[in-house]
Amino acid sequence: MVYMIVERFHAGKVRSVYERFSEKGRMMPDGVNYLNSWIAEDLNTCYQLMESVSEEKIHEWTSNWNDLCDFEIIPVISSAEAKAKAFAENK
Fold first, then answer.
1. Looking at residue 81, which CATH number applies to its domain?
2. Given a cut of 80, is residue 79 above it in pLDDT?
3. CA distances from 34 to 1, 75, 87, 90 (A)
4. What is the pTM of this model?
5. What is the total count of domains within the chain?
């Protein structure tokens, strides 16, 4: 499953996030894969696409960063999958 992770950095902690990342990497458990990310221009929010075998594994990963960020975890599907699902449900 793919998840959109909305990561909101705690006030004044963006530098600490990057320092930890430089020292320890993403600290992902087995079964979680990083796909891509974007940072808001104001440096307060990161939007990440992650792939995982379970949402529990995503929570395991975010627990490594909870002291620096708040997380919103959103299961997502591709536009093509959404279209196929919409047409299958409307038969």
1. 3.30.70
2. yes
3. 12, 14, 30, 34
4. 0.88
5. 1
